[in-house]
Amino acid sequence: MEKLRKKRAAERRKREEAMKINFPYPPTMDSVNRFFVDNVSLSDELLSCGDIDGSAYYLAAALVGSGQTQECVEALRSTIPPELYNALLQKFPEMKLQFEMEIAKVKARYDRNRHTEHVLFDEAYD
Asked: Which Gene3D superfamilies does the UniProt entry name for this protein (predicted)?
């Protein structure tokens, strides 16, 4: 029984890792454009396979990661299937929160590294 629990936990972690979005940071025009195109392509691929939730997940990531707003989501209403639009409405706020948390972690890591470099630099000349 314990082996089965461990196996399921490992599979769940693997699925979660596969669904992890690597938002472009620092955001350059090229990295944001590439991120947008890659995630829209994944969304289209999943939609063609009938995976509405997966498609909405990657479409939300593309929109959030490229700085689009809720108004942009609403503008898509007439261009995407209704079930995808409804799923996107649910995923967009979740993805926006995930994006904000991820960027905050990256900034904190950058600030820590920058502080460490200054400390090491200052110690070298004391």
From this structure: Mitochondrial outer membrane translocase complex, subunit Tom20 domain
Query: Which of 2-6, 44-48, 79-83, 98-102 shows the lowest mean pLDDT across its residues?
Result: 2-6
Model-wide pTM > 0.85: no
CATH number of the domain bearing residue 79: 1.20.960.10
Q: Which of 75, 37, 42 is nearest to 56 (CA)?
A: 42
Cβ–Cβ contacts within 10 Å for residue 122, how many? 9
| Host domain of residue 89 | 24-101
| Total count of domains within the chain | 1
